[in-house]
Amino acid sequence: MNAVVAALLGTLLGALATIGAAVVTGWAQREGARISARSQHVKDRHEPRRSEYRAFMKVATDLNERILTTDGYRDTTREEELALRRHVYERWIEVSLLGPDSVIEAGARLRDSVLGTLAAMAESRSLVEDLNRGNHEDDDAEASALNAYEESLHSLDALAHLLIEEVAVFAEAARAALDDDGTAPKPAARKANGASG
């Protein structure tokens, strides 16, 4: 009888060990598949993000180069300003859809900086058009118009330097987003109930 009990106990323990090994193996395979799928998902999102972030930064750096060219600044045309504005919004839409929030926030600042620079370019164009029309009553009015145009060029130069700083901030946020492989723990969300702490 002891032999029968020992045989049954041995069979039972063998079955439990087999079941346990199967469960552990299944869990390990499922975990491996999950990690592999996550890795592929991150890879699939990385390249489109990289391309769009780069294109968005290129809009800003091209505009900056347009202003700070060594040949001297050439005023824009209205058509060029509209095309640039349209291009900024097209790139912005892509960046805002790809995210994440940190990139969208830095991108919004860069977008606003680009649009502000474009507005200053339009103002400069308007001032030089007024100056070129020559409809000034006297020399003082013409000197005042010339002074306003020169001030707009100085302002534009300052905006171009600020623009390049915003590009650097955006690049840092984009680089962090691209380096995020999804394995780092996310910070706990703060409650939005207005409590301070």
According to DSSP, the number of beta strands is 0
CA radius of gyration: 31 Å
Give the termini separation: 71 Å
Order of helices and strands: HHHH
- The residue-averaged pLDDT reads 80
Largest sheet: none
* Overall form: rod-shaped
Which structural class should the secondary elements be placed in? mainly alpha
Strand proportion, as a percent range, falls in: under 5%
Runs with pLDDT <50, length 5+?
A: none
Number of helices: 4
| Helix percent band | over 70%
Structure description:
The protein is mainly alpha-helical and 197 residues long. The chain has a domain at 45-179. The protein contains 4 helices and no strands. The protein has helices at residues 2-67, 78-98, 101-133, 139-179. The longest helix has 66 residues, at 2-67. It is rod-shaped, with a radius of gyration of 31 Å. The termini are far apart.
Task: Give me some keywords for this one.
197 residues, mainly alpha, rod-shaped
Summarize the model shown.
With 197 residues, the chain is an all-alpha fold. It is built from four helices and no strands.
Write the layout of secondary structure elements.
Blueprint: H1 2-67, H2 78-98, H3 101-133, H4 139-179
